[in-house]
Queue: 2 jobs
Job 1
Amino acid sequence: MSKKISVIIKEPGKNPRHVAISDSPRNLQATVNGEVDEILISSDLVILINKNQSELPECCEVCSRKLSGTIVFCGIGHPDEDAADELTDIPVSFQEFKKLFPDLWEKGGKA
């Protein structure tokens, strides 16, 4: 059963935006325009990307990794819990996110 989760979406050439989206596999694939892959940033933060990065326009750099296409920042269940792989609301506020990744607001930014 899908649910709405609070995420931050970053598209190439645009500033990040805070939205609520369905966590259904179909919707996540539509959001990243293809098969979804995950990059774990911390124990509770994950980036969802299009698995086929080579054919997409450059978006940004996060933790020294260049990412292409639309990317989605969201939370992930705690590894010690039963729902460890479950996507959750982003674990920080939009203001905290801006402080953590300020370069995402600059063209071709790095975070």
Job 2
Amino acid sequence: MKRLTAITRPFTAAAGAPVRPAKAALNYLAVCVAVASSLMGFTLSPTLSVMGEVGLCGEVRPVAQAERRVAECVRLGFTDILLPRQNLKRLRPIDGVRMTGVDTLMQALAVVG
């Protein structure tokens, strides 16, 4: 738990709100993509929103209340949304928003990199 808190501390400062380990699971894909972009030297689009949980083998797991999360992303101006493919199957298309579903962390990195 201490290690996870240390990892999420920089994101707390950037987000302006605490990222608690119990709730951070929904953001693991976003954290992995952010760290990979830094290490691999590619820039993420400012219009990109990422959601999903990442398992130990790199599988991307669905998030709860995906419709509400996507609606909030759209409200905040995000036009590219990367999310678990299992969630994408249940969502309706939104005009002007590109939603991309992935099954693994490697697929997510291929999409954003």
